[in-house]
Amino acid sequence: MSEPFHVLILGGTTESRRLAENLHGPLRFVRHLRVTTSLAGRVARPVLPPGEVRIGGFGGAEGLERWLREHRVDALIDATHPFAATISRNAARAAADAHVPLLALRRPSWVPAVGDDWRSVGSLEEAARALPPLGGRVFLTTGRMGLATFAHLDDLWFLVRSVDAPEPPYPARTEVLLDRGPFTLDGEREIIRRHRIDVVVTKDSGGAATAAKLTAAREAGLPVLVVRRPPVPEGVPVAGTPDEAVDWLRQFAAFGEFSGDGLSASGFSG
After folding, report:
1. What is the pLDDT of residues 114-134, one digit of tens each?
2. Which of 61, 106, 170, 263 is close enough to 90 for a disulfide, judged by CB 3.0 to 4.6 Å?
């Protein structure tokens, strides 16, 4: 019997879980398909996808390349957070060195609507510099990593929302809200009202799970500092949905044979 077609998903996002579910759904009777999802281990209680799961880092690009070779990975899908730039660079380098096809699965960026007051910034550092003139009460929704960037802003009050409790350093005047999306529009409206928020800071994560805060900010007439996402490594094709990622996998003869489907030559942007 030939070895299974092994797909490694670099996960941690809703899209990565849905992709794993898709590959264990319509294709669940395919004996020769093996799916492994890798999680970084930064969240204390992650929502686990179906299939094999490994938790922890690889040890840089070299470690990931070694893992790809040792575990005979046939296709690699980088479905990490759009701001996980380091693992995305490592994935591009490891896949190239190991001669493994690589796809980046990225939810589309948010697009401003009429009435939005968005201020695009290139980094958390730029967001911290832009904050003081915009208001004294900040809804900071960039996660618990990188809070040290705002720690010197003693004159501002911060509401920090994250899945797990942050560790210092972080701003002296900080209230922490532990929560996991998806978030409702009514809930976001109430947060802005109850905490008298003046300005919202977010990363351009995209997707619907955390987008309600943008609508709530628009309704309240609040400025929003939006940190631009880093680019996907050059030359790596991009899919916007888990279904497109499955189509990309079907381009490979081995996968087409195992699935019993015809091959798809769907094109993706680089």
Report:
1. 999 999 999 999 999 999 999
2. 61
| Alpha-carbon span 209 to 217, nearest angstrom | 16
Q: Choose between 13 and 46: higher pLDDT.
A: 13
One-letter-per-residue 3-state SS of 97-149: HHCCCEEEECCCCCCCCCCCEEEEECCHHHHHHHCHHHCCEEEECCCCCCHHH
The Cβ-side half-sphere exposure at 22, using a 13 Å CA radius, reads 16
Q: In 3-state terms, the chain is what percent helix, strand and coil (to 5)? A: 30, 20, 50
CB-based contact 38:54 (threshold 8 Å) = yes
Q: What is the pLDDT of residues 191-209, one digit of tens each?
A: 999 999 999 999 999 988 8
Q: What DSSP character marks residue 250?
A: T
**Residue 266 in 3-state DSSP?**
coil
| pTM of the full structure | 0.84
Please give the Cα distance from 143 to 147 (Å, whole number): 8
